Amino acid sequence: MTATARPTPTAPPPAKPAPRLAPSLAAQLRHTAHCVRAVEQGRSLSDVMPEVPGDLRPGVQALTFHVLRELGAARALVARLVQRKPDAAVSALLCSAIALLLLPAPADAAKGEEGVPAPATETKGRPAGLHYAPHTVVNQAVDAARQDRSTQRQAAFVNACLRRFLRERDGLLSSIAGDPVARWNHPAWWVERVQRDHPEHWRAVLGANHTPGPMALRVNRRHTDRSAYQQALLAQGLQSEPAGADGLVLAEPQPVERLPGFAQGHCSVQDTAAQLAAGLLLDGREWTAGDRVLDACAAPGGKTAHLLERAELDLLALDVDPRRCERIHQNLQRLGLRAEVRAADAARPADWWDGRPFDAILLDAPCTASGIVRRHPDVRWLRRASDVDQLVRIQRQLLEALWPLLKPGGRLLYCTCSVFRAEGSEQVQAFLARHTDAREIPSAGHLLPGLAGVHDEFNDNPPGGYDGFFYARFDKMGA
């Protein structure tokens, strides 16, 4: 009898991994409230956000940015919804939920369907993907309160406050309409200073801070030219428009991993206002590798790199923070550029200067950062009115320390990412009054978010407008 071979059993197909569920809105709201509370306690979002779990971070960052852009209104509404001020954790959660409820609900909310993120489109300049049905926001905020030890006993209170807001929304919004902090979502001192400094444009400046700035790239002209890089972007399905001498503004923000050749140094992310520095300092003369240039407050190195992309220079980049100097090294290495980088205080030349004068100095001075609030919405809530005078003193000290280091015939470019005149035109006038050997060269002056500068050559706005910046160039007489 012939034995019959048994068929070889086939292995069962591998089980498909269970799809990863998107983080719940409740989890995101809980971490968003923690971030908002941290900012209210004086911590920068740059320090706080890395503490958020990685899978939650993109959503939490988008939510937190939105809440901080609406925080003045949200705080005013919370004050009208409660008889007694809640503790900080509950207040931060209420503000976070109310900021979401201030956004238009998705169109299908009226049909009674479960709230889901709206399609990825902008609604009146507001962020994409944050539009939820009102009852979804309320339910998820209550769940967030229950999940957190610091708020779990107040979950019913959170529910009552948010439901009252939905019932009385129109009346509550009318009640805060006359509050400038709620209307403009900036501290009162900030609103007053911008009104005084820019009486014709203050509404546009404050309004521009309510929406995100566009993503701008600086093409590394040592690796490629702008036209070729724009075509490389287009091949990846990424639309862009030229801006300035080396810039491209993307139609939509993208992760840097999607940018062709980013790791190889073909481009950098840099706002169009910041890209003006290299041309304002270098244009108008020929530069050689023997020309000494100082970038006095260089980290993270964007302007340093742009100078080196534009010309062969003997460049010294300083920053007072050794950790930030490491960022300069990393950026230069990616871009294939070289400079001497030192951790030192530019205001104390005796500690680092070798006595050889500089042909040009870039002083991107520490400032309030009041011009980049659309990208860093926490800045407006972190700053205090007293910070302005303190930073003006630091800027003056740096100007006084660095001016003697400049050759006769040399040039110094002073800039701040600020819209406050105390850090711009007023600082310049005071400097010129002290130094009769300084001659101001027409430059960009005050650049305001969404508006052009004060000189004709900067009246053509790039797509999405400039960040707020100030530029002034001084030439040293006596050559």
* Structural domains: how many: 3
Which sheet architecture does the biggest sheet show? 7 strands, mixed
Instruction: Estimate percent helicity.
Output: 25-40%
What global shape is seen? globular
Q: Residue ranges: pLDDT <50 for 5 or more in a row?
A: 1-6, 108-128
Report the total helices.
18
- How much of the polypeptide forms β-strand, as a percent range? 5-15%
List the defining traits of the structure above.
479 residues, Alpha-Beta Plaits, N-utilizing Substance Protein B Homolog, Chain A, alpha/beta, 4-stranded antiparallel β-sheet, Rossmann fold, 3 domains, 11 strands, 39% helix, single chain
Would you mind describing this structure in some detail?
- This protein has helices at residues 25-40, 45-48, 57-69, 71-81, 88-101, 134-147, 155-167, 169-175, 180-184, 188-197, 202-208, 226-235, 276-282, 302-310, 322-335, 379-382, 385-402, 425-434, and strands at residues 216-219, 240-243, 247-250, 267-269, 292-295, 314-319, 340-343, 358-364, 406-416, 438-447, 469-476.
- It has three domains: 25-185, NusB-like (N-utilizing Substance Protein B Homolog, Chain A, Orthogonal Bundle); 214-270, Sun protein, domain 3 (Alpha-Beta Plaits, 2-Layer Sandwich); 271-476, Vaccinia Virus protein VP39 (Rossmann fold).
- Residues 1-6 and 108-128 have low confidence and may be disordered.
- The chain has 18 helices and eleven strands.
- Helix content is 39%, strand content 14%.
- Helix 15 (322-335) links the parallel strand 6 (314-319) and strand 7.
- A seven-stranded mixed β-sheet has the order 7-6-5-8-9-11-10, with helices on both faces. A four-stranded antiparallel β-sheet has the order 2-3-1-4, covered by helices on one side.
- With 479 residues, it is an alpha/beta fold.
- The longest helix has 18 residues, at 385-402.
